[in-house]
Design a protein that fits this description.
heterodimer; A: six-stranded mixed β-sheet; four-stranded antiparallel β-sheet; 12 strands; B: nine-stranded mixed β-sheet; 9 helices; globular; binds adenosine-5'-triphosphate; binds magnesium ion
Amino acid sequence: MLEIDNLHAKVAEDDTEILRGLSLKVGPGEVHAIMGPNGSGKSTLSYILAGKEDYDVTDGSITYKGEDLLEMEPDERAAAGVFLAFQYPIEIPGVGTMTFLKTAMNAQRRARGEPELTTPDFMRQVRELAGALNITPDMLKRPLNVGFSGGEKKRNEILQMALLAPSLCVMDETDSGLDIDALRIVADGVNRMRSPERSIIVITHYQRLLEYIVPDHVHVMSRGRIVKSGGRELALELEENGYAEYVEAA
Amino acid sequence: MMAGAERTRTRTRAEEALARNFAALASDDAVHEMRSQAFDAFMEKGLPHRRVEDWKYTDLRALMSDAPPPASPASPQAAEEALARADVFAGIDRARIVFVNGQFLPALSDLKGLEEDVEFASFGRFLAGGGALLVATDQADEAEAPVLALNGAFVTDGAVLRIREGAKLARPLEIVTVYAGAEPGLQTLRHQVSVGDGAEAVILQSYVGPDDVAYHTNAVTDVRIGKGAKVKWVKAQEEGNKAVHLGLDLPRVDADAVFDPFLFAAGSAVARAEIRLIFDGEGASAGIRGATIARGRQHLDTTLIVDHAVPECTSQEFFKAAIDDEAKGVFQGRINVWRDAQKTEGKMMSQALLLSESAEFDNKPELEIFADDVVCGHGATCGQIDEEMLFFMRSRGVPMEEAERLLVHAFLAEAIEEIADEDVIEALEARTRRWLSLASEVR
Ligand SMILES: Nc1ncnc2c1ncn2[C@@H]1O[C@H](COP(=O)(O)OP(=O)(O)OP(=O)(O)O)[C@@H](O)[C@H]1O
Ligand SMILES: [Mg+2]
């Protein structure tokens, strides 16, 4: 599904290197968790996967479904099945949530040569999925994320993920800001999406999320690279001991 | 051979054409006498240019390359076909007064349901009767307002409308101005609208015409808003892509009235929409707003002068413009608060979004305050599309162009949504989406 090899990246405007030789392989159907101290480059990695232009990749490669991901525009990546749930979803005043969702779904369908969704079909899908995520019709009537609470924004990300049905889901700290009930709702939503054809990368600081979304692999990221990989027990160990050992190692 | 003041400069091609066109109108009736005065006043200074303060950013000497002769009347069939394009407010059940190529067409007009509340006559009838109804307005005079002077010289028709005191119009009233035909021509209209005390009305104006025809529109509207009246006034300028549109609205707003004009501009090669508003009585308010979309090589100018001459009036000006390609937008807004106008509130904001490297916007809000107890402010911004928003949308699969257009719509909608009328908001937002080639809204 995804193969990142020796990735080096820096901020486009200056020379600070943020990713310093990061490698990661994610197979189809796998769930990977990435943990690591603040500032280690987790969000940067997720942005580079989604195609944000603020970063320059100076070395290494990213292959997605056999193709060079770095050659693709952000919207092409999305149409090809890459989805990023943002750590800080932004508000877009003036763009209605429903209008945006339909625009995005149909844009992806067009890009893949599929017929566009009719409004009734679209409405039906949204209602079903929104209900399961406890997103009210009133929220859907508002402009995208405008006036949403932190937790509501995160749930809205998962709604978009469920609607767009990507093959590679990257979730950047989707759990932070969620109350206990919302955490369970979101985790259930993600678990329903687990499938042999879909891979998931969850970036998190908390082992609690991983009790709900059980990962196949856990990685520790420090100073721009993966410094340790293991099974889910690694998350427990980190919770116990912190990152000190890995920060030194990096 | 000595030259008069007139000949100290060479006339532009357009001025020559105007002089020829005017000479062809020769007649010996009383109306012509007034036309001549107006035309002389125009020729005294000629087309305004960049050294004339009010026209600094819209230099008509440079922008107006020619002046077509007065338009010939359209055949009934051509008129009807052309009218089909005037669908800006199609979703609204409204009465209509229709002008095609500068002529009132009763057969296409419809004032049903408003007979009790509205008196209407065509200005053309007064002109034909030799009736000297080219009333001078004290808000502008021909010597300093070239649009008014040209209007006086070439006017052929217009709406003389009176809305009765206390009337609540059952449906909005639209004044439609359509150009028909493939030959360039000039249509010149003078409207006089008077809204009685305490009346409530929604008045719509639409301007449409064919693409690729270099026709000109000149429209001057005198507006009287009576005491305590409530009027929404929405102008949609969607002229053809080669058109020149010169509009001048002259509202006077009496005590405690609420007058809310909105200027939507998307058409024309060159357009100027000017409003000069005077508060005549205390306690009145005006929300003057607008949205402009300019592309290609369009030049779209919005100019406002708001005079607070009496105390305790409120004006809010809020304008948005999205400028793409090599287009140019202009916003000039001046709020004058005269010495007696204590307790005035005035807030003016003009925001532009520049969508390309070569797009240009001159943004000039000004306040002139001679009273001491007022709350006034103004602001202007010129910015680009928010990169974070763009990236967010693209990361969901929306291609760059479409994401941009959605954000432009959102930007303009902020002004449109200030109109306190759901139907009008819906119509103008749908229009904006159409100009931006966006799919319709999902609610
Ligand atoms: N656009 C940018 N300009 C300058 N510095 C940046 C930029 N993006 C990221 N950085 C820097 O790169 C480093 C990694 O940031 P990143 O957001 O990827 O960390 P993170 O691992 O997601 O941290 P957190 O756990 O706090 O979310 C930080 O030091 C950050 O300040
Ligand atoms: Mg982060």
